[in-house]
């Protein structure tokens, strides 16, 4: 396997981004963050790409920030993108986390920056920053309470204790639990199902779901309509209806 900190593979409109520092349990350093940020830029700028998967090499996802690099003054933060090149500005297109082993600290914050999470039954999740005198400032304290019940997020933040895949699924943190060693395989199936759909409709659906969390009841229908109008008058909308009538697969153009 290459010694590059981030590996990118593209096939059938699906990009697989692999964190590739297994000797450090895929801890995030500056080079890894730059690699992830570049992959996310490519995902959104390349019209041939429909969806991406973020995973880790060596049987684990990401153990967080590289503390050795941190004490030497190196920070895995990309301006405009955030920790690991992802947490503050995820891509416009769907992103799936495929998790084996540990997703801890910044690793969990990378995972919750993805739209969907597939986890192996051996996966462990946590934001143990407080155990090192730090705080989960890359999303653990502000994004996690929006994805699971706030009291459970509070417990994870204050104790720093880990939870397993079963607990994570029960609290709604992850989508699917699969046998150890098959997280990427299951994520690829999920990605293929997404890639088969209209790209404009998929991207807009993601945008509405994420942005509507901040909309009031009074404005949500208007704001939604402003975004989905372009979908309903798109070439893809006509193609989708035509393909259905002709009993064939649609030929999406993304416009």
Fold blueprint:
Layout: E1 6-11, E2 14-19, H1 30-45, E3 51-56, H2 67-71, E4 77-78, E5 82-83, E6 95-99, E7 102-104, H3 106-111, E8 116-120, E9 124-126, H4 144-147, H5 150-159, E10 163-164, H6 165-170, E11 176-178, H7 183-195, H8 199-211, H9 220-232, H10 235-245
Parallel strand pairs: 2-3, 3-6, 6-8, 7-9, 8-11
Antiparallel strand pairs: 1-2, 4-5, 9-10
Helix pairs in contact: 8-9
GO molecular function, one term: enoyl-CoA hydratase activity
EC number: 4.2.1.17
Family: Belongs to the enoyl-CoA hydratase/isomerase family.
Account of the 3D structure:
By secondary structure, the protein is α/β, with parallel strands linked by helices. It folds into two domains: 6-196, 2-enoyl-CoA Hydratase, Chain A, domain 1 (Alpha-Beta Complex), CATH 3.90.226.10; 199-246. The chain contains ten helices and eleven strands. The strands form three sheets. The chain has a six-stranded mixed beta sheet, sandwiched between helices. Strands 7-9-10 form a three-stranded mixed beta sheet. Strands 4-5 form a two-stranded antiparallel ribbon. α8 packs antiparallel against α9. The protein is globular, with a radius of gyration of 19 Å. The N and C termini lie far apart (38 Å).
């Amino acid at each position: 396997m290459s010694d590059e900190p981030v590996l990118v593979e593209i096939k059938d409109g699906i990009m697989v981004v692999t964190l590739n520092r297994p000797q450090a349990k895929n801890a995030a350093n500056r080079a890894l963050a730059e690699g992830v940020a570049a992959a996310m830029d490519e995902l959104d700028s390349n019209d041939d790409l429909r969806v991406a998967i973020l995973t880790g090499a060596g049987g684990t996802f990401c153990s967080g920030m590289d503390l050795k690099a941190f004490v030497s003054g190196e920070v895995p933060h990309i301006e405009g993108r955030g920790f690991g090149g992802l947490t503050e500005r995820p891509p416009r297109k769907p992103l799936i986390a495929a998790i084996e082993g540990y997703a801890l600290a910044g690793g969990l914050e990378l995972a919750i920056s993805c739209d969907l999470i597939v986890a192996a039954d051996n996966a462990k999740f946590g934001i143990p920053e407080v155990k090192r005198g730090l705080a989960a400032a890359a999303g653990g304290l502000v994004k996690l309470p929006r994805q699971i019940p706030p009291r459970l997020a509070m417990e994870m933040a204050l104790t720093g204790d880990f939870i397993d895949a079963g607990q994570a699924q029960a609290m709604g943190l992850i989508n699917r639990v699969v046998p150890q060693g098959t997280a990427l395989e299951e994520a690829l199936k999920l990605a293929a199902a997404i890639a088969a759909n209209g790209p404009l409709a998929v991207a807009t659906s993601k945008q509405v779901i994420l942005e509507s969390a901040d909309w009031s009841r009074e404005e949500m229908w208007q704001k939604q309509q402003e975004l989905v109008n372009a979908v309903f008058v798109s070439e893809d909308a006509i193609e989708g209806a035509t393909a259905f009538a002709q009993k064939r697969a649609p030929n999406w153009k993304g416009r």
